[in-house]
Specification:
With 359 residues, this protein is of the alpha+beta class. The chain is built from 13 helices and eleven strands. The chain has two domains: 130 residues, Phosphorylase Kinase, domain 1 (2-Layer Sandwich), CATH 3.30.200.20; 221 residues, Aminoglycoside 3'-phosphotransferase, Chain: A, domain 2, CATH 3.90.1200. The strands form three sheets. A five-stranded antiparallel β-sheet has the order 1-2-3-5-4. A three-stranded antiparallel β-sheet has the order 6-9-10. Helix 3 runs antiparallel to helix 8. The model has no long low-confidence stretch (mean pLDDT 93).
Length: 359
């Protein structure tokens, strides 16, 4: 069933974010809001566009005490961007409408409006401007400490635990998401050769430069899913670039374009291997995995996997992050791709991922 918000016309460019449109959007959840002026104070364009809006309210037009700045996220930079990322925009809008209200005790950005339009393909979320809370945004070139990793695993255990083996929205994409859909393109001789031929790909083991070998490993990982344990709600893209940290160090997750019903080990392995330095990961990964399992097992109604099964699942899931090497520069800067490639290639060998997958 559509929400009343979905009946709104959703602008396809930034010029459409007028005072009247923002007033109408905010009034769905915050009646009697009246915006007098909107100015765009910075734009980040990628798979989705994120525009920082500075609002001026009419006298008496802010009875709910809304902030003077917020972010509008959607496809505002042409049909190609909308075609590329539109499915993700829909999922994020639906996440903030249906699932975020069930996660109020977890740190995620606030959302003031979320809507999707099946005709235009546009979806828009008006969300909190996190800079007003003096957060620090995660970046792969700045790995976290083992203590921060432990707190983040507590966050993930809380997310996973409350949806453990419980049906969640049918609108979620099936695990493993887009990576499986684009495998043929990623592993084509032309594309794979170009990506693994870059200097940043120097850590890639010789065997994995063969796209067919990589395909076999990915397919073995996906096939192993049935042995990983109960499904749950996962973030689906739990890397440092999708995280932020409050001044007291508490973590939060951004970018909910890829929530999935899938295996807990996807989030845990992707986060741990990608967020710790190689040295820290080698030193603390077993201890941190045990910590996650203890936190998961403390959730109501959850029987956490035993350590041996969890360790195997953790080793197998390294293949997800290994695919960072196939990320082109128009999607992520080279320094971010290089940092993740180094960490996942080291883990691939340290953890004998191919052997864990029966290859």
């Amino acid at each position: 069933m559509n929400s009343p918000e979905d009946l709104m016309e959703l602008p396809l460019d930034l010029d459409g974010l007028t005072p009247d449109w923002v007033t109408q959007a905010l009034s769905h959840r915050y009646p009697d809001t009246a915006v007098q002026a909107v100015s765009i104070d910075g734009v980040i364009a990628g798979t989705a566009s994120k525009a920082r809006l500075r609002l001026a309210y009419r006298d008496g037009g802010n009875p709910h005490g809304l902030a003077d700045t917020l972010y509008a996220k959607g496809g505002f930079h042409g049909p190609q961007q909308l075609e590329l990322g539109g499915v993700g925009y829909v999922r994020e809008a639906l996440f903030f409408r249906h699932l975020a209200p069930k996660l109020e005790d977890l740190e995620i950005p606030g959302a003031f409006f979320s809507a999707t339009n099946a005709v235009s393909g546009q979806s828009i979320v008006l969300m909190e401007d996190l800079t007003t809370r003096d957060v620090t945004f995660g970046k792969a070139t700045s790995p976290v400490s083992s203590d921060t990793a432990a707190v983040t695993l507590e966050w993930l255990a809380s997310l996973h635990g409350r949806f453990w083996n419980v049906p969640v929205s049918d609108e979620l994409q099936p695990w493993p998401g887009v990576i499986k859909e684009v495998t043929t393109t990623l592993l084509s001789e032309e594309f794979w050769g170009a990506m693994t031929g870059r200097p940043l790909a120097a850590p890639v083991p010789d065997a994995m430069r063969n796209p067919e070998r990589t395909r076999q490993a990915l397919e073995a990982m996906w096939a192993a899913f049935d042995n990983i344990g109960p499904q749950t709600l996962i973030h689906g893209d739990a890397h440092l670039g999708n995280m932020y940290f409050l001044p007291d160090g508490q973590p939060g997750f951004l970018d909910w374009q890829s929530p999935m019903r899938g295996p807990w080990a996807d989030d845990v392995t992707y986060f741990l291997v990608g967020s710790l330095s190689v040295e820290e990961r080698r030193k603390y990964e077993r201890e941190l995995l045990q910590h996650y399992l203890a936190c998961l097992g403390a959730q109501r109604g959850v029987v956490a996997p035993g350590f041996d099964d969890a360790w195997l699942a953790y080793r197998q899931q390294v293949m997800h992050g290994f695919m960072w090497v196939a990320t082109p520069p128009q999607m992520q800067p080279d320094d971010i791709v290089a940092a993740n490639t180094e960490r996942f290639c080291a883990a691939l060998e340290d953890l004998e991922t191919l052997r864990a997958l029966g290859l």
